[in-house]
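> forwarded from #structure-qc
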């Protein structure tokens, strides 16, 4: 799967799943801009991933801010040219807890980062993809968007929203050869999910019920993202790919 000459943006590309995706895309030859809030993390990752094939450029950006998203798009075009691949991966989970205790502020802020950022980047970048009749958008959702979780009202709502938006975007952009897909990871061993994989009781339950009885690794999402970014998936759009060790089979 080659991505030679392609330009990609991966939000949250400094660590975790986003870093694994950036590594796969750069390894296939794409030039990749990684973007999130912490400049030092991004710089270290850009450094680590240099020499894989494509170039990796770090750009600090709070994805909940419209002006910073515009700056990210403009910087990517300036450094690498028009964007072919957009990976909406950054997310927050500040609103975890009983539904009746969720504040308006937690709900709105989570929506800004987990949903509105993708909408804004798509509105900014997809017109160019349509003009060039080529593009792949990959939204990192979650199995939490497929089934309810106790205490997960806000996070699950944003991921479910992202999944439906993925399908609507796919319907509208497909005729222009711009594809939009989502990946729904199960439990993957990153900072984000440390609360779960560091919890022995939770892990005992998971290994008893999940067909592949272990926590997943970020690169196991990276491989799926590379497939969706590449022309190998040229007839695939509007889908949600579940990568969860079989957790949702029962
Ligand atoms: N790990 C799992 O078990 C799991 C399961 C299902 C879905 N997911 C999804 O996978 C994606 C990646 O998560 P992960 O597990 O890799 O977590 P992670 O290692 O904690 O990474 C989260 C990334 O999001 C960035 N981010 C957070 N808030 C941001 C903001 N306001 N603006 C810009 N970037 C922001 C972080 O960078 P900064 O802190 O530098 O901003 C970081 O790079 C998320 O969409 C998450 O919902 C994860």
């Amino acid at each position: 799967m080659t991505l030679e000459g392609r330009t990609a943006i991966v939000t949250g590309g400094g660590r975790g799943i986003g870093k694994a995706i950036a590594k796969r895309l750069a390894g296939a030859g794409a030039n990749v801009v990684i973007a999130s809030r912490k400049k030092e993390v991004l710089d270290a990752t850009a450094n680590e991933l240099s020499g894989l094939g494509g170039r990796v450029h770090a750009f600090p950006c709070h994805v909940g801010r419209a002006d910073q998203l515009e700056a990210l798009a403009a910087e990517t075009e300036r450094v690498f040219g028009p964007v072919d691949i957009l990976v909406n991966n950054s997310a927050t989970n500040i609103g975890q807890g009983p539904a009746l205790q969720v504040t308006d502020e937690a709900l709105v802020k989570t929506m800004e980062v987990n949903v509105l950022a993708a909408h804004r980047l798509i509105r900014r970048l997809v017109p160019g993809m349509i003009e060039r009749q080529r593009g792949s958008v990959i939204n990192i959702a979650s199995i939490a968007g497929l089934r309810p979780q106790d205490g997960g009202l806000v996070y699950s709502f944003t991921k479910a929203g992202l999944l439906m938006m993925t399908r609507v975007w796919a319907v509208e952009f497909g005729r222009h050869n711009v594809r939009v897909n989502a990946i729904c990871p199960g439990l993957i061993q990153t900072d984000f999910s440390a609360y779960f994989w560091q919890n022995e009781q939770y892990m005992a339950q998971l290994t008893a019920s999940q067909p592949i009885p272990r926590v997943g690794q970020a690169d196991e999402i990276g491989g799926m993202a590379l497939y969706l970014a590449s022309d190998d998936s040229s007839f695939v759009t509007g889908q949600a790919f579940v990568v969860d060790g079989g957790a949702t089979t029962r």
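QC bot note: Residues 104-132 form the longest helix (29 residues). The mean pLDDT is 97.
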